[in-house]
Design brief:
The chain has 14 helices and twelve strands. It is globular and about 60 Å long. The two termini are about 30 Å apart. By secondary structure, the chain is an alpha/beta fold. Strand 11 and strand 12 form a beta hairpin. Strands 2-8-7-6-5-3-4 form a seven-stranded mixed beta sheet, sandwiched between helices. A three-stranded antiparallel beta sheet has the order 9-12-11. A two-stranded parallel ribbon has the order 1-10. The structure holds pyridoxal-5'-phosphate. Pyridoxal-5'-phosphate binds next to helix 5 and helix 6.
């Protein structure tokens, strides 16, 4: 079956990055890639910090952080007064869990598409407080309406203290109808944390339009920010109840300063995040989104064809700008987390291709991303090498 053509390349975009040209970087989703302009901005800030550390920390840093926060909130369509900078989605989620005041008999509800590290964090908070973690099963092929129905039926009002739902899932690269889910949970008085780790830069929905009680998103993935840049957005009723993981000097300043000031730390990633957004905007945000989603779809088809997967069996992520796509691996491969990690390393070493291998529901998946620095030939090369490598078990 013929594969639809790849999107027009964004000429010269690869030159904005310092990626090793000998490697196909097809996994932007895991740790992102920082454009040189943002790397340089961060280095200049570090130079300034090292030239006079006292001056850097005591004169104007708090204002610079506030300015950055407002800039990022504006880009995301979030209320700047409800936005706090944090280091990553995992930390933002942990801040929420330990601020809930969970007790014995309470539960935190998630789906089985949730991120593993976040699930660990929930389980630890449940062990500490006597609450329980309950997981809803959501079939990969469930329609948006079915997902909302599963959530509706799964809520236990009065007992479910928090529902955690991913905007775009990691292991299954699936867009969830988060605004509708927030609506249903709200009807039952259940607060929702939207784990939007992949949303900033990739997905157009504004944070405000989703209406969640808590929303956490990484700028260091699709927003091109230096690593260690994320935001936690909190609805008005919760702002006074949110506590930082580490208490420091701004504790009495309330939200968001008490969350942001995390003692002596390197704040330069946050301050250079606008330079990453500058790179994204200079390429054209809509253009980048369309390109990346189109290229990921192309890669999915090319590699899927090579593995003999019929197009109908290639999961559709559910949104026109989703730049991560799954291909099912042959049965028996990557059925555990360790197996997935080992296969991912083998593909990197043998085929010089960085991909994500995920495991979900007892089977292994290849997850491919599209990004402005990728070319169709990179997926085509992977398609040539992968069947042979997978055949050598
Ligand atoms: C859905 C989801 N949540 C949370 C995270 C964790 O992000 P971080 O490592 O930046 O905390 C990821 C990372 O890929 C993710 O996909």
């Amino acid at each position: 079956m013929s594969v639809p053509p790849p999107p027009e390349p964004i000429t010269g975009a690869r030159l904005l990055f310092s990626l090793d040209p000998a490697v196909s970087h097809l996994n932007h989703g895991s740790f992102g890639a920082v454009p040189v302009v943002a790397q340089r901005a961060q280095q200049r800030l570090r130079d300034e910090m090292e030239a006079d550390p006292l001056r850097f920390f005591t004169q104007g840093l708090v204002d610079r952080i506030a300015h950055t926060r407002r800039h990022l909130a504006g880009f995301l369509g979030a209320d700047p007064d409800g936005t706090a900078l944090t280091t990553n989605a995992t930390t933002g989620a942990a801040v929420v869990f330990q601020s809930l005041g969970l007790r014995t008999g309470d539960e935190v509800l998630t789906t089985d598409h949730g991120y593993g590290a976040v699930a660990h964090s929930i389980r630890r908070e449940c062990r500490r407080t006597g609450a329980t973690h309950r997981v809803l099963r959501v079939p990969l092929t469930a329609t948006d309406e079915e997902v909302v129905q599963i959530v509706r039926e799964g809520l236990r009002p009065g007992r479910t203290r928090l529902l955690v739902v991913d905007q775009l899932t990691s292991a299954t690269a699936r867009l969830f109808p988060v605004a509708a889910i927030v609506g249903v949970a709200g009807e039952h008085g259940v607060p929702v944390l939207v784990d939007a780790a992949h949303a900033p830069g990739m997905l157009p929905a504004s944070v405000h339009s989703i209406g969640a009680d808590f929303w956490v998103g990484n700028l260091h993935k699709w927003g091109y920010a230096p690593r260690g840049t994320a935001v936690l957005v909190v609805a008005v009723p919760w702002r006074d109840r949110i506590e930082p993981l580490v208490v420091s000097w701004e504790q009495d300043s309330g939200f968001p300063a008490r969350l942001e000031w995390q003692a002596t730390s390197d704040y330069t990633a946050w301050l250079s995040a606008p330079a990453g957004l500058y790179a994204l905007r200079s390429l054209g945000v809509e253009r980048v989104r369309a390109h990346n989603a189109g290229l990921a779809a192309y890669g999915q088809r090319v590699v899927g064809d090579a593995l003999g997967v019929p197009p109908a069996d290639l999961p559709d992520p559910g949104g026109p700008t989703v730049a991560m796509r799954l291909i099912p691996l042959p049965a028996g491969l990557a059925t555990t987390l360790d197996g997935a990690r080992a296969l991912q390393t083998r593909i990197a070493e043998r085929l010089a291709a960085q991909v994500a291998v995920t495991t979900w529901d007892g089977r292994g998946w290849l997850r491919l991303c599209g990004q402005v620095y990728n070319a169709p030939e990179e997926y085509e090369r992977l398609a040539v090498g992968l069947p042979g490598l997978l055949a050598q078990r």
